[in-house]
Amino acid sequence: MTTQLPAVITGCDEYETLTEDERAAFLRRLEVALELGTSLSGGKRRKEFPDFFHFVEDLEQDASHLQEFTLPWGGTLSRWLVHYSWTFDTTPADMRASLTAQVLHLINSDEPSTDASLEVSERWFTELGDGVAIAARAVLTATDFGSAMAHQIALDILLGRILSACYRLRLNRLVPR
Description:
Blueprint: H1 7-10, H2 13-16, H3 20-41, H4 44-47, H5 52-65, H6 79-85, H7 92-98, H8 101-108, H9 118-140, H10 145-169
Helix pairs in contact: 3-9, 5-10, 7-10, 8-10, 9-10
């Protein structure tokens, strides 16, 4: 079964102006983000890397690739464009109201410090993975445009938080190298 975007996205004017490559990249990014989140939240990804340093390196690389839409020729689709022009048909209040307490907590909570134990960092990645999976799934199953956009923005925030935690771990003296 192939994944499809919901009608609330495919029916919006902004989506309709995208090329086929841009549409495919939009969907592919959500699918890969869902896979990443699920593998983090379930612990599968961590088990694939017995060495914590290599786990973080691989995670940083994958999260970095998800920072933009993969287009063979560059294209015009970007996170900024989605955040900017795709949100005209909703309001910040409506988007905020559609996010669960769990996702809001992950968006607003403090990140582990550069001196945090590796266990604390691992727990943080598990929680973020759960949030990424929730957000990506919510975009893919949205029945309301405001909710789709809220979860798209939440997804981008959570992916950024994964990267921030990876970067911060490069300064953590507890990370074995």
